[in-house]
Amino acid sequence: MSDEPTGLVRPDRRRPEPLWHQAEMALRDLIDQGEWGAGLQIPNEDRLCEMLGISRITLRHALRNLEEAGMLRREHGRGTFVRSATMVAGVRGLTSFTDEMQSLALSPGTRLLAAYTIAATGEIARALEIPEGEMVVQLRRLRLGNGDPIGIQTTHLPAARAPGLFEAASEIGSLYRWLKDNAGIVPVKAKEVYRVGAVASGDAADLELPVGTPAFEVERITFDQRSPFEFAVSTMRADRYEIRSTLYV
Fold first, then answer.
1. Cα-based distances in Å from 216 to 7, 235, 239
2. What is the mean pLDDT of each run of 10 residues along the chain (249 residues)?
3. Model's pTM, two decimal places?
4. Which residues are in the HTH gntR-type domain (predicted)?
5. Which of 60, 87, 151, 245 lies at 20 to 30 Å from 195 by C-alpha?
6. Domain that holds residue 137
């Protein structure tokens, strides 16, 4: 993959469209035209940035949109590949855990297990579209319904966007409500990935389940009008948390 694709159209800063959109369209064209076929591994981020003449953050925005569109898939430790056609089914409203529990007639609850200020690792930085090493607030919380454990959620937010969050962590019930009231952050969309997983040894006691019990593993990236502001990884009890979808012809 060292040779530059012949059909590549490099983003032009003189054009009115955002660079991330131009990059997304350039990569999409390579896939649509068959220059990058299904199953092919695309160049790594450094090479793509060089080919397109854009920053890593701009590139990640474009790649994330193509992943969401089902055109690319990222495999941990291997790279990013062109995928065959996929079906996306099941659309849910964007709500906080608190609102979701209340809609199910359950009393929501949250217990803060830990709060840290840490430097963003590569995975966190990619999700939040921030430079690696930038400070983020990490909240590890036990989510409850009617006092029973539902799941454990580890949330990461850019510290610069939510001043005071770390100090207020132990008092927060609904995170989204706190962000709206104190940082002016209002979610407009989120992207979620659900996988089948198992309860890890560090989560078993709080979830009141044996180690290895089947569970949902959920990754969520939440956006406001400006950029992604939350990257959350959750382990949800499969016997107390359901995914429901309405499908139409």
1. 41, 6, 10
2. 72 90 91 83 92 94 84 82 52 52 62 96 94 96 86 95 94 90 92 90 94 92 92 89 63
3. 0.61
4. 17-85
5. 60
6. 97-237
